[in-house]
Design brief:
The protein is an alpha+beta fold. The protein has two domains: about 140 residues, Jelly Rolls, CATH 2.60.120; about 120 residues, Homeodomain-like (Arc Repressor Mutant, subunit A, Orthogonal Bundle), CATH 1.10.10.60. The protein has eleven helices and eight strands. Strands 1, 2, 3, 4, 5, 6, 7 and 8 form an eight-stranded antiparallel β-sheet that branches. Strand 3 and strand 4 form a beta hairpin. The protein starts with 18 loop residues before the first helix and ends with a helix.
Length: about 280
């Protein structure tokens, strides 16, 4: 799933999604449960509340104007109030979101460390806290307490490894967009930089300065990003996907995939095959 340029804050009206108006089923205040099929895209929007997005099943990519995260069940995404974001569903998804009013967040002792979006590793305790908020016998007071406990755990659980940042310099961003448009392309950095109106030295400096990744590492992460929807389709093997994206072999691809996503490529492919088989069985 490639990431495209997002609208900058203030350049256009961004839809505001309010949970109470968009629930698929009635849920108590403060939580949101949804099921999304693979391939679903939720365009750029904001919520008035802060959100902790977690999916115990499936895989999603959450994007902001600054970059995107790959989010398997081992991770969750923290989004402060009114954070512009998109969601791409890369494997059938069961989403569970905690919704935190801005006033509740402002009063929390960790508020100063929760003023930006990031991804966290979901340890067993955090998982049970999140899912406990959705239990039928959880009342409003306990749900608020569980939310406060979750907020306490987030800063220390941050996992920056799954983030794919976009450079902000227009020249470096043009290079990034050329790579995203054709992840397999092996055009050298010198040629890409020239097309973007910059020198190779300038782009080599801008990528680590603005994304925290060398251009080589960033490009590899872009290829892994492109592999996710291919594996999720269920009709391509890991070998076929690795070859399609220009990796030297299955081993190199599998290693890079696990480094970026925290999961095995073979597991993602098996999940895609299972979803494809189930879909066929449902057809009339």
């Amino acid at each position: 799933m490639s990431m495209t340029r997002q609208s900058s804050p203030g350049t256009a009206a961004v839809p505001v999604h309010r949970a109470a108006r968009t629930n698929f089923r009635q849920m108590p205040a403060g939580v949101l449960a949804r099921s999304y099929p693979r391939g679903m895209h939720i365009g750029l929007h904001v919520h008035p509340e802060a959100q902790l997005l977690y999916a115990p099943e499936g895989l999603m990519q959450v994007g902001t104007p600054e970059g995107c995260w790959f989010v398997p069940p081992e991770r969750a995404v923290w989004l402060p109030p009114r954070t512009q974001h998109t969601v791409d569903v890369l494997a059938d998804l069961e989403m569970r979101a905690l919704l935190i009013e801005a006033t509740q967040l402002a009063a929390h002792e960790e508020a100063a460390r929760l003023n930006r979006p990031f991804v966290v590793t979901v340890a067993p305790l955090l998982r049970e806290v999140i899912l406990g908020a959705f239990a039928d016998d959880t009342g409003p007071a306990l749900r608020r307490l569980l939310t406060d406990v979750a907020l306490h755990q987030l800063p220390a659980a941050e996992d920056p490894g799954s983030f794919m940042p976009m450079p902000t310099d227009p020249r470096a961003r043009r290079v990034a967009e050329m790579v995203l448009a054709d992840p397999r392309c092996d055009t050298g950095l010198a040629d890409l930089a020239s097309r973007a109106g910059a020198s190779m030295r300038t782009i080599s400096r801008l990528f680590p300065a603005q994304t925290g990744l060398t251009f080589k590492a960033w490009r590899q992460r872009a290829r892994i990003s492109a592999s996710l929807p291919l594996l999720g389709r269920g009709d391509l093997s890991v070998k076929q996907v690795s070859a399609r994206l220009g990796f030297a072999g299955v081993a190199a691809f599998s290693h890079a995939f696990r480094q970026v996503t925290g999961r095995k490529a073979s597991e993602m492919a098996a999940h895609g095959r299972g979803a494809r088989s189930a879909h066929r069985q449902q057809l009339p």
